[in-house]
Specification:
The chain has 373 residues and is an alpha/beta fold. It has helices at 24-33, 38-50, 64-73, 145-160, 184-194, 215-222, 239-245, 254-266, 288-300, 326-338; strands spanning 12-13, 16-18, 74-75, 80-86, 92-97, 103-109, 116-118, 122-124, 139-142, 171-174, 207-211, 229-233, 274-280, 306-312, 342-345. It has 2 domains: 12-75, DNA polymerase, domain 1, CATH 1.10.150; 80-368, TIM Barrel (Alpha-Beta Barrel), CATH 3.20.20. The model is unreliable at 1-14 and 366-373 (pLDDT under 50). It binds iron/sulfur cluster.
Length: 373
């Protein structure tokens, strides 16, 4: 269990309780308030999370009268899937809408060894990273705990079927729309609920949270007793360039960010490393000098247990950046390697359906629309 969940506030949506966003203890309180015994909470939790049921009528181990009562005061499914796109590489993008009509996107990335679900923490994003399409939406609103969890359930049901087992090894990455650390409490509560053994059972070790550099939350995250992995989006080796590419740098500059990263490094478990993500923009941040500056920065802060995740830029209008040439990425990596720094490239996935990194902007593609039930 994550220890930082300070509040046990129950998420109320449209005046009905959103049950998927309740912890087991909150569910016990909820059923008690409706005159039901504790074991009803266990039944509901297991139905919603382990069996991934989306409607009260399908929780047939509850008496019909109680299901009707639940329907009047609570809800299980608040997100609706508007469209689903399947890439030629097998990636699936889900465009959903909240009850108040805000877009939410999640992406399923299949792989032979382990499938990954990339989910959103916010609708839109308030940060203005210059290379990211989501930034163009601005912040629409934070997602609730229940909405964060529902995304995962919808994707799992689509891929593996309702009530299918959550395949062992499914990874989660908080790298969809939004800055996760600006919705910290809801995110951590959602991860906490999803880690429950009698629920989805997606343990923190299979989860990575990516931040653009909300420095105070990096310290808070480092202090979680049973925390997921961390990735920090960097994309520039000096303040001048990072101010332009990722304006959050004007609030917390590289020195503050790397000082926080050093503290985080001290919290790493045996064998664990953390990641700096570096979006490669052709002719902007991909020179050998940029690579050397990056290596110098890591050395200056004595960061040793890191790896650099190189993300080839995913072009999308109206963004003006171009991806780096593959040979240039190779040269960049060689400089890092000479300095003893590990790096690897993330293979672009789902570019044709606007599902790739930095492309989530609630785009609809009429020719490809596939509605999911
Ligand atoms: S890269 Fe991430 S943090 Fe930056 S604007 Fe896009 S979604 Fe927000």
């Amino acid at each position: 269990m994550f220890l930082c969940v300070k509040s046990a506030k129950i998420a109320v949506m449209s005046e009905k309780i959103h049950l998927q966003g309740l912890t087991k203890d909150e569910l016990i309180e909820f059923v008690a308030a409706h005159g039901e015994p504790k074991y009803r909470a266990k039944q509901i939790f297991s139905a919603l999370h382990a069996r991934r049921v989306r409607e009260f009528d399908e929780i047939t181990d509850l008496p019909k009268a109680f299901r009707e009562k639940l329907g009047a005061v609570a809800q299980t499914s608040t997100l609706r899937v508007e469209s689903r796109y399947i890439s030629e590489d097998g990636t699936r993008r889900f465009l959903m809408k909240t009850h108040d009509n805000f877009p939410v996107e999640a992406v399923f990335l299949p792989s032979e060894s382990r499938d990954t679900i990339c989910f959103s923490s916010q609708s839109g994003c308030p940060l203005k990273c210059d290379f990211c399409l989501t930034a163009k939406l601005g912040l629409l609103r934070n997602l609730t705990t229940g909405e964060i969890i529902e995304q995962i359930i919808i994707v799992l049901n689509d891929v593996y079927g309702v009530a299918g087992e959550t395949p062992h090894g499914t990874n989660l990455v908080a790298m969809g729309a939004g800055e996760p650390f600006l919705n910290f409490e809801n995110l951590i509560k959602a991860l906490n609920i999803m880690s429950e053994k009698d629920g989805l059972f997606i343990v923190p070790n299979r989860v990575t949270v990516s931040t653009a550099g909300i420095v105070p939350k990096i310290y808070e995250f480092a202090d979680l007793e049973n925390r997921p992995h961390l990735a920090i989006s960097l994309s520039a080796p000096n303040n001048e360039l990072r101010d332009k590419l990722m304006p959050i740098n004007k609030r917390w500059d590289l020195d503050e960010l790397f000082t926080a990263a050093k503290t985080f490094e001290k919290s790493l478990r045996r064998g664990e490393r953390f990641t700096f993500e570096y979006v490669m923009l052709g002719g902007v941040n991909d020179s050998e000098k940029d690579a050397q500056d990056l290596a110098d920065l890591l050395n200056k802060h004595d960061l040793r247990r890191v790896k650099i995740n190189i993300i080839p830029h995913n072009p999308a209008e109206p963004l003006e950046y171009k991806p780096s040439a593959p040979e240039q990425i190779e040269r960049f990596q060689q400089v890092l390697a000479k300095n003893g720094i590990d790096s690897y490239q993330r293979r672009p996935r789902g570019r044709d359906i606007y599902a790739a990194c930095g492309q989530l902007a609630a785009k609809t593609q009429p020719n490809l629309v596939q509605i999911v039930r």
